[in-house]
Amino acid sequence: MLNTLLGIFKNLDPMNKDSLMSALEILWKGLLAIFIVIGAIILTVKIVSFLIQKANEYKKAREEACSAEDDSRQP
Fold this sequence. Notes:
The chain is about 85% helix and about 0% strand. It is mainly α. The chain is rod-shaped, with a radius of gyration of 31 Å.
């Protein structure tokens, strides 16, 4: 059993330059993808936060306008 496992990994050479370059290429693409996704999430959260803030401001202004209109109607 151990010989079989060692036989599988026999062809792996940690100093193989082609394998290292291939692994590094996969690595930088993966890291770039992670940073892009994190940036997209941060941007989405900022946009949603901005929109919620603006909606609350408009809601407050509308409530103030309605209350001022109600005050002007009272005798």
